[in-house]
Structure formats: structure tokens, C-alpha cells
Amino acid sequence: MEDQVQTVKNTSENTKVVGDRPRSASYPIVDLECSINDAKKVREKLGRGQYDRDQIAKALDYSGVSGASSQRIATMSYYGLLGGQGGRYQLTSLTERILVPTDALDSTDALK
Predict the structure, then answer these.
(1) In terms of Cα–Cα distance, which of 85, 60, 80 is closest to 70?
(2) From first to last of its 112 residues, what are the pLDDT tens digits of the chain?
(3) Residue 71's closest CA among 24, 104, 30?
(4) How far is it, in rounded angstroms, from Cα 89 to Cα 79?
(5) C-beta separation of 39 from 91 below 8 A
(6) DSSP string, 37-49
(7) What is the pTM for the complete model shown?
(8) Can you state the angle between helices 67-78 and 32-46, rounded to 10 degrees?
(9) Which of 4, 29, 89, 100 is the most exposed place for a label (fewest CB within 10 A)?
């Protein structure tokens, strides 16, 4: 059974209604610079490859998956720094271009 999602315009914010439950709109919890630093931590501590949410949370110095760590992981995904499927995540090629640019312009272009 699939829930119907409906966007409702409110004077103070956009909310989504899933079933009977209103949900607030998704916004990044931290700015891009902080999210890039998070991606850098993940790369330094876990290397390149695939990781689960718990591994990423621990690389970000959380004890495990929590609301706060989930928001940081979601924010990296929002900015396109982290991609995933089926509970497995990996840093994207965009992240690699930012963290390990092939030349001075590559990192600058990736941030546009």
C-alpha cells in the first residue's frame, strides 16, 4: 500500500502530508562547507568504497546512528556529496572532484 504525498502551502512553511501526518519540508541542517568537511572525514576514516549508516555516523564522531547523525548524512546526500542505494552509501564523483581535484579549476567548477 503506497501513501499518497500531497504538498500543502502554508503561510509560514511548505509541509508535506503523508497519509494523515503533516511533515515539515526538508532543508539542509548544515551549510555546504560543513557538509564538505563531513565528507572529508568520511573519506579519511573509511576510504573510498561503500558504507552503511552506522559506519558513516561513527566516522562523523557519533556513537552510532541517531537523529543528529541521520540529519548530517541526509544533508550530505542533499548536496550531492553522498549517494546510496539499498542501505549502502558511497561518496560521489562530485565529492572526489572537490576533495581531490585534478587541477585548481576542477574543485572550483565542482562547487558551482
Answers:
(1) 60
(2) 444 444 444 434 455 555 667 766 677 889 999 999 999 999 999 998 999 999 999 999 999 999 999 999 999 999 999 999 888 999 999 999 999 878 777 667 776 6
(3) 30
(4) 14
(5) yes
(6) HHHHHHHHHH-SS
(7) 0.72
(8) 100
(9) 4
